[in-house]
Amino acid sequence: MRSLDDKLVLEKARSNLRARYKKKTKKKTGSQAESIREQNWTAGVVSEDINAWDFVDEDMVLVAEIPKGSTRWNQANFDKNNFVNFFGADPQKKGYIILLRNVKNNGLLGEIESRPSVSVKSKNYRFELEAAAGFDYPSGTNRPIGVFVRVSVRMFLYVLAMPTDPFYNTINQFLARNWEGRADRMKRINSTVGTLRRSCNDLPFWNIVKL
User: Fold this and answer.
1) pLDDT tens for residues 161-199?
2) Strands in the chain per DSSP E
3) Nearest one of 106, 97, 153, 152 to 127, comparing CA atoms
C-alpha cells in the first residue's frame, strides 16, 4: 500500500483519467457528464491533464460584454444570474474557487488561473481575468467581450475579444443578434458550444494547439 500523495499513485491516477475522461464524457450529456466531471475535479489531478480541457457541442457558453468598472477592469464584473448559474458561485459566500484558462489568438493555452469569486455590497460579482491585465480599456463604443466555455465543474476556457482582434466583429454581431435586453445594459448571452461554433467559426477555441 502507498500513500495517496505518492508519485506512482498520482501518475497512475493521471493515466486512468486520460483514458476515462474522453471515453465517457464524449458519449454523455447533461447530468451524467456533469457527474463524471465533478469526480474528475475531486480527483485533484484534472487540471494537469490537457485532455481535461476538451469540450463538446453541448457544453454551456457565456458571451458577455466586460464593463469598464474601474481602472482595474481585469476584475471583470458579471450579472448575478451568470455569477450563480453559469460560474456556480454563491454571492453570500466568499472565495468560491474556479479555474480559468485563456485561449490566445494563436490557439495556445495560457496558464491555469485559480480565481476566487468576489461579491461586494454594491452588487458587483467578479472574477479576475489574467488576459485583461495590462491592457487599457478601449476608448471607443465597442467593449471587450469575454467568451467562456464551461468545460467542467468549476473549469472554464475563455477568449477575451478586444475591438482590434480579427474575430471581434463576428462575436460582437452574435451578441447583437441574440440580445433581447435593454440597450443601456451589458449584453450577456447564454448559449452552447455547438451554436457558437456555427455562428462564430473564427474564434480561437476551434484552433487550440495541444503541445
Assistant:
1) 999 999 999 999 999 999 998 888 899 999 999 999 999
2) 60-65, 75-78, 97-103, 109-116, 118-119, 125-128, 145-152, 155-161, 188-192
3) 97
- Identify the CATH class of 60-207: mainly beta
Cell for 71? 481602472
Amino acid letter at 191?
S
pLDDT of residue 147 exceeding 60, the answer is yes
pLDDT, one tens digit per residue, over 66-118 is 988 766 788 888 999 999 999 999 988 888 999 999 999 999 999 999 999 98
From 187, 64, 72, 67, select the one nearest 123 (Cα to Cα): 67
Distances (CA, A) of 179 to 18, 34, 79, 158, 175: 38, 28, 14, 20, 6
What single-letter DSSP state applies at residue 23? H
Residue ranges of domains in the chain: 7-53, 60-207
Q: At what angle do helices 30-43 and 7-25 cross, to 10 degrees?
A: 170
Examine the pLDDT at 6 and tell me if it is beyond 60. no
Classify residue 43 by burial, with Cβ atoms within 10 Å: 0-12, 13-18, 19+: middle
| 69 DSSP β-pair partners | none
